[in-house]
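S1.2 Input.
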Amino acid sequence: MQLTDVTTFFCPTRIYMGIGAHEKIADAIRQYRCERIFIVLDAALEGSDFYARVKAVLLNHNVTISTYTEIEPDPSAHTVEKAFAVCQASKATVILAIGGGSAMDVAKAVGILATNGGRIHDYEGIEKFTTPPLPLIAIPTTAGTGSEVSGSCVITDTEKNLKMSIRHAALNPADIAILDPLALRTVPAHVAAHSGMDAFVHAFESYISRQSNLITDAINLQAIELIAANIRQFVANRDNLEAGLNMLCGSALAGITFGQTGLGNVHCMARFVGAYFHLSHGLSNAVCLPHVAAFNLPANPAKFARVAQAMGQHVQGMPTLDAAHSSIAAIKALCTDLEIPGQLRDVGVDPAKFEEMAALCTQANYNRWNPRHTTTRDFLALFQKAF
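S1.3 Output.
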């Protein structure tokens, strides 16, 4: 950020956080005078203790419940249409999303269609709808995407085989986000690791973004510190509720910022790694992260040194460049401890696709945000180094 730049910061979501925060759904029901609620639910949670707790709150307030659980990873427009039909039939006035990023994306898309009409394809891009969606309450069950507070949802157009990003900073975040570590207790260890690294990359890339500002910097450093200090304990034991809450808060903080600052080459490369080789978004990010971070370091050593400090590295008194390199060492150690594969070859990536993927990365134009200008040749070299 230059001193002459005028930047902005905005977060429209009310956040409740803490053990048992799901009980605050009662306040939302009263606020919206809700009698019928449509729940977009991760199917794995249908018989869980946590969902039983949520249902008990709703039933105690005489709310009629309709649910939709047929949600796949990278949800399609067809899934949105089916979920919307259930929502319409229920005559719900509020939507509750319980799950990871996919459940929240479907809930957001349904809310848009409920008040704006048409197909979800009509709203691809930035601020393509003007009527506020149905009120959305979001309870994340992974500490990763930050979707509960972000201004975007991503829906797959299976006819064109591409992902549609529907973005609106004011109208697309959930109205209410509930961060309750009780919701995380059934998350498998590898999902906790991959989604947690996704949250870390959100905070890291938002912090070093060309579009960052003083407010996003402060938020992202806190997110990096929370995630780096808690992800190992959280992955080792999801019953560690303190670590779980800290991870949820770190994920949400990064979710608030990255939509305003943009992300960088890690997400750019991971986007095509995931698409071509059907890897989870979090794992794709985590494998690319150490290689891209080392490439970007020369663009802003001072910020990398501050990342090292936020990650608990003892860098006081070090020359800035030495401290900056400590951040790369800390990132590599974190990935190793979480059993993240070190190279793309370890997750089944085929190098024959690298030239095509490098060209797509250039076309995606993440140079708007990434701190170091990156050419197609640079992307090809990064893929090869990560392989």
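S1.4 Remarks. The domain at 14-184 is CATH 3.40.50.1970 (Rossmann fold).
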